[in-house]
Design a protein that fits this description.
Blueprint lengths: L10 H4 L2 E3 L3 H19 L3 H6 L2 E8 H9 L1 H9 L9 H6 L8 E5 L2 E5 L4 E3 L10 E9 L2 E12 L2 E4 L18 H11 L3 H13 L3 H22 L16 H10 L6 H18 L3 E3 L9 H11 L5 H21 L4 H4 L5 H15 L4 H13 L17 H21 L9 H14 L20
Parallel strand pairs: 2-5
Antiparallel strand pairs: 1-9, 2-6, 3-4, 6-7, 7-8
């Protein structure tokens, strides 16, 4: 990616509502399949009339762990016209429970029969631009009538091969691509970090300040509802691991020790695991910045609201600061576990949370930057090695650990002397990208190494 391009991502592209357990394996493929359906709807009637089937081919990490991540269900959902934010998790989880069930995909007046056999999990080495690649084909027997290639690049973002994105209407008022740019704008324009984020969002999304506030409140509501559900459930999570949920028990332990010194950390752990367990169950969560990391920011904001008594406006503003950090990582490295390993997911979420904590406590942009840098620095090299391909072990506890690291990064940054800070956020993001590029693909969401090899013990 050309890092000189300005960031034009909307806050509501980063924070997206949808079903778990994986934004790159579930939300992204659902959006790709829906996009393919919409493209087919615009094809000439005579071409559709001669078509006999729709075939889907999954590559890389989508192939290696797609079944456990629900990629096959997501594709069916997208072809049925479902959208992630309105997806019923119970209906979604019921898709393909019968491998022989056939679904009717309607393209204009043509009905295609679609089942699991139409999804092909391709193994081997392939030279695609991204590890999460899927190709959808409209077929007439063995002849390809139309084909689209998609890359699920993390956080539910997708790129369609050959697509030219029109950025004419997405010109930020204050263009930036690095933290150094941001600090320069704040100093030269004499504006706050919130002014920068709000004005840019207004230009990018066309929303008013009031509409932006309402949408952030809606995002926070979905985050916190996931926690409320999670701390009440003690079910076994779906999949072959048969992992028991822990958040309810953790929350009860936190209640018993709420007056102890470590009480608030116990609550934080329970909140993060509650949201992450909801994700693992395939329920509705918010990418923050990914589904695999969807417990960190919800847990931290829940703590800020329930325990630190921050008001709604302060937490809204904290979310804007967190989004800034997420944008910088996505733009200059990646938030995809298939590219960066878990440092791209939990590491980014931890950095976003650390910066939010600093902002809400009233610290300067330099402290905010330092906290984000520290959080990323101490996630560098973290592998993505889920057991059985499920977003359960080690993912759920990593959300809790990422939040605790965020809190400590906040303490280290706010308690230290900024004159002694040697590493910038921009520098550590470059290191993250280089580390991800050097990391073996076995440790990047393929379940081929690391803890994933412990699956026989589960």
């Amino acid at each position: 990616m050309n890092t000189k391009e300005h960031i034009t991502t909307s806050i509501f592209e980063l924070f997206k509502i949808g079903p778990g357990p994986s934004s790159s394996h579930t939300i992204g493929p659902m959006k790709a399949a829906l996009n393919f359906l919409n493209i087919c709807l615009k094809l000439p009637t005579e071409k559709i009339a001669t078509a006999t089937s729709i075939e889907v081919y999954l590559y890389g990490s989508l192939s290696a762990t797609g079944k456990a991540h629900g990629t096959d269900r997501a594709i069916v959902a997208g072809l049925l016209g479902w959208v992630p934010e309105n997806c019923d998790p119970i209906e979604f989880s019921s898709l393909l429970t019968d491998a022989n069930k056939k679904y009717s995909i309607i393209v204009n007046e043509k009905i295609f029969s679609f089942q699991l056999l139409n999804i092909h999990f391709e193994r081997g080495k392939f030279d695609f631009p991204h590890a999460n690649t899927l190709i959808l084909k409209l077929m007439n027997e063995n002849n390809i009538l139309h084909e689209e290639e998609y890359y699920s690049i993390g956080g539910g973002f997708i790129v369609r091969k050959g697509e030219v994105v029109d950025k004419k209407n997405k010109i930020p008022k204050y263009p930036y691509s690095t933290m150094e740019d941001v600090k320069s704008i704040l100093e030269n324009k004499k504006i706050s970090i919130i002014d920068l984020m709000i004005e840019n969002e207004k230009n990018i999304s066309g929303l008013s300040k009031e509409e932006i506030d309402q949408k952030i409140d809606n995002i926070l509501s979905f985050m916190h509802k996931a926690i409320d559900r999670g701390i009440l459930s003690d079910e076994i999570l779906p999949g072959s691991i048969q992992l028991h949920r822990k958040a309810k028990y953790l929350y009860s332990q936190a209640e018993q020790r709420k007056n102890s010194q470590e009480g608030f950390l116990m609550f934080l752990n329970s909140y993060c695991e509650a949201a992450s367990e909801e994700n693992a169950a395939g329920n509705i969560v918010v990418t923050a910045p990914t589904s695999g990391a969807s417990g960190v920011i919800p847990g931290v904001t829940y703590l800020m609201k329930k325990h630190f008594q921050y008001d709604e406006q302060k937490i809204r503003e904290g979310m804007l600061v967190a989004a800034l950090i997420g944008f910088l990582v996505k733009h200059n490295a990646s938030i995809s576990g298939a590219e960066m390993g878990c440092m791209g997911e939990i590491g980014t979420a931890s950095a976003m949370s650390a910066s939010m904590l600093c902002y809400c406590a009233g610290y300067s942009i330099n402290v905010i930057e330092a906290a984000a840098e520290i959080a990323i620095e101490h996630h560098l090299g973290m592998t993505c090695d889920p057991i059985g391909g499920y977003v359960q072990i080690p993912c759920i506890e990593r959300n809790a650990m990422g939040a605790v690291k965020a809190y400590n990064a906040y303490l280290l940054a706010s308690s230290g002397n900024q004159a002694y800070q040697k590493i910038s956020l921009d520098s550590v993001i470059k290191v993250m990208k280089a580390t991800g590029n050097d990391m073996s693909k076995k440790y990047k969401e393929t379940s081929e190494a690391g803890l994933a090899l412990s699956s026989t013990e589960c």
